[in-house]
Specification:
The chain is mostly helical and 94 residues long. It has one domain. It contains four helices and no strands. It has helices spanning 6-17, 21-39, 45-56, 77-90. Helix 1 packs antiparallel against helix 2 and helix 2 runs antiparallel to helix 4. The two termini are 16 Å apart.
């Protein structure tokens, strides 16, 4: 999950450490819970989503290995929207 949105993971840790309850309360509800729901749609999707997110952020990564499959281009709308919304919450950008 942390590789999916490192800015979110860092912000969540900092909020917990510094008692930033607004961020610590908002990120799970607005980002992590929807991410888990998205991840659970397809077996092995967690790995596929991390790689897809890396590609969306401009990183060069290869495809997942069988038996996993990469999300179809049409299937990237939800992960992209979730990643963008999560990064917006912590003030980061794609």
């Amino acid at each position: 999950m942390h590789a999916f949105a490192p800015g979110n993971a860092g912000a969540f840790f900092a909020a917990l450490r510094d008692a930033g309850h607004g961020t610590a309360d908002t990120l799970p509800r607005a980002f992590y819970v929807p991410f888990v729901e998205l991840r659970d749609r397809v077996p092995g999707y967690a790995v596929s989503l991390v790689k897809a997110a890396a590609r969306l952020r401009g990183q060069r990564v290869g495809p997942v290995r069988a038996p996993l499959t990469d999300p179809a281009p049409a299937g990237l709308a939800d992960p992209n929207a979730l990643l963008t919304a999560g990064l917006d919450l912590v003030g980061a950008s794609l």
